[in-house]
Amino acid sequence: MRKSFIRHLKPVSFQSKLLMSYIMIIMISVLAALLIYGVNLYKQTKGYYEDLLNEFSNRTNVIISDFISNVSLNSFFYLTDPKLQSILTKRYQLESREHVEDTLYVQRAMDQLVLMNGNISTISVMAPNGRVYTSMSAFEPGMKQTIDKMNKQELLNGNIVISPPYENNTKGNKDKQISIVRYLTDININKTIESYAKIDIRFRALQNILGGIANSNNELGTIVIMDGKVIYHSNLPTETLDSKETQDIAAFFDNQLSDGKKFQKLYMNQESYLFSARVNDMTKWKVIHYIPTRLIDQAFLNNTRNYILLSFISLITAFILALFFSKRFIKPIHKLNSEMKLVDSGYLDRVPIHENRVDEISRLVTSYNEMIHRLKESRELEIISGQLQKRAEMNMLQAQINPHFLYNTLNVIHSVAELNRVSDISTMARSLSDMYRYNIKTGDEATIHNELEQIKNYISIQQIRFLGKFQVVYEIEEDLFPYKILKFLLQPLVENSFYHGLEPKGGKGTLIISITKKGHLLHIRVEDDGVGMSDQKLAELNDIFTNPFQTASLDSKDNFGLRNVHARIKNFYGEDYWIKLSSELQTGTCIEMTIPGVKEMNADENTGGR
């Protein structure tokens, strides 16, 4: 199946393939952008509604706390009236007349508060002497019943405690209400007597507040849970709060809030909803807000639909442009293809460029024309090329013969000098012959032992030239002889010391060659006590080592030896290794370098005889 599909594609023209590739690239880009856009858009849409739920949760939390806090402040009504404080702090049992007077006075004060605050239905106070003072419509036995159901320890700690909603026991009034109870710590400082204040609030007031928040968004729902039971549901009537589905939601959030998850997705009334739950710090109620997840999906689909429409228009535009440009690009290629078929028949003619093109196709035609031109020239130069090749082979053989010829000639000079007992010429010829053989037989590296042998050959020649004018001191341990260094690394430095330091001095001089090992590095020093150099010259030479390609041209013969050594160290060992120069006028010059210390494994071969 796959092979047949590939065979089917082979006859397709290059223009069709180019067009298909272009469309596929555009479609892949659009689809990838659509995928990325869709994922990000869904996250943004979901995040928007999560932020909306957070905002409603924060607002509800603040409104409930402020409402309960403001209402609970009414329990301090007696603090502004000294007579009320005196009545409520009495600890002895009252006579009937005193009791009636106190009750009427306290009741009038409480009734005024009830009339001023429409959300309060009744106020009750249990005094230290056991008397209960209430507003006119309060049911006196209800206070003790309510307090007995509450957490006494929370009350003694000074916290306000709120009761669940319950039906009013007042005759003819069945409205639900909640009670806010506070322990009178300002009266019972030692907490020896139970004394409380209770404010009854019409639950309808809280329902109106929560309903107003829910009505700001028709799709928003609010649920309030207390002690595992739903006490308020914005989308359900009060008599249906005990339904199984509602209680299942209450039980779920009772267990899940401890997990720290801010948002949950649940099904309710056969529809998916996004829930956000928060515990009110003051009432300990679990306040839950929810919205249908279809809102998220609808917003996502609406935005995605617009993007798909725009992408479709872009694809159609791209297809039309692809047709136009593919024809424009392929036309000269078709012409070039026709001309290339004629090459097989020996017809070598150039393709004319009729259009003023400067693109890749123009360069392709130009390259083809140049190729045709080179093919024509190749025919004419075929014989000459063969002759040049033979000549190059002869030159290569000659280059191999010349070094051996010079080496053999030096040996002949040495033999003739020996026969005629001209020792100086014999020594110089032998030393030069050994140096030349060392150059042609050794690779890029040599042992310190072999390098020193060549230095000694060079010094032997110089000692004949400058008889008795210098001495050479070697500060090299024999343990370092097997270590490898670059071939002819020392000879240019020694030669530099002779020509620029010791020879201009005139008198006797000393040359010191020192090699020491420090860790895994070899430290090499060539020092003379010659004429030295000026600070300007020293700075110029050291600048060669810092900026070798800026100080002098690579073709310059000035300071060639030093530049050559420096370049070889950097190229062979790397940028971490160095050479530096120090000198003082009429005192001497010292050249130092540091290279890696690598020991030759077959040192016996390199340190053996010549």
TrEMBL record:
Domain of life according to the entry: Bacteria
Keywords: Cell membrane, Kinase, Membrane, Phosphoprotein, Transferase, Transmembrane, Transmembrane helix
Bilayer-spanning residue ranges: 21-42, 307-325
Subcellular location: Cell membrane
Residue ranges of domain HAMP in the record: 327-380
The keyword Repeat is assigned to this record: no
Main localization, broad class: membrane
Claim: rRNA processing is one of the keywords in the record: no
Membrane topology per record: Multi-pass membrane protein
InterPro entries: Bact_2-comp_sensor_kinase, HAMP_dom, HATPase_C_sf, HATPase_dom, Sig_transdc_His_kin_internal
GO function terms (MF aspect): kinase activity
Identification of the protein by name: Sensor histidine kinase
